[in-house]
Amino acid sequence: MATTTLMTADEFLRAPDSDQRHELIRGEVRSMPPAGGEHGHIGMEVAIPLGVAVKEQRLGKVFLAETGFRIARDPDTVRAPDVSFLRAERWAAMERPRAFIEGPPDLAVEVVSPSDSAEEVHEKALAWLEAGVRLLWVVHPRGRTVTVYAPDRTARLLGVDDTLDGGEIVPGFRLPVRDIFA
Asked: What is the pTM of this model?
């Protein structure tokens, strides 16, 4: 019986670059196909207004999909949401990470890809919630909806006539769901 050697986050960080995106899930490297045009565009439709609001109010930092967050140790898990936000006080309390950011973001945004199965989307949402993310938005391009998850795992489904609200996590931030799919 073959055994799998698990990789640490430090080993994952030092691994040679490739043309594909990867995440480290419980010590195992998972390849992710490059995002398609619609996926990337939707991510930016969230990231740009979020980034402007966060910068204007000095609320913290917004990150794009290349940013890894170590959300579990031994075995290590490093995930990279499509868009994320970290509150200013958390950012100020850490050294400028040259490696992965320790812990989850305060807000994680995942855009569902055509290749994502329902099981994969559910697994990713659970992983973020279990890691302690305070707000999770899962954007479903096909249905033009956004599922909003709270830490207690309650979920609300928003349609194009609804508005995303940053609540206590990103105070004052509001984004019409319709604008995400423009």
From this structure: 0.85
